[in-house]
Amino acid sequence: MAQATDVDAPIAGRIDPVGTLDSLAASGIPERHKHRVPPVSQHLGHLDQVKGLNGLG
Hints:
Blueprint: H1 17-27, H2 40-54
């Protein structure tokens, strides 16, 4: 029986654009402050929620 795969998992050999953005955005932040800065992926998730709110109206 086939197992369902995680659709958000990166495919081997391909670039994960959101993961890359997260890494690049965090690269200039000192390690002791990284926990205070939300990743780009979190911001994108929030934008997706706002988009869903537009559909309610």
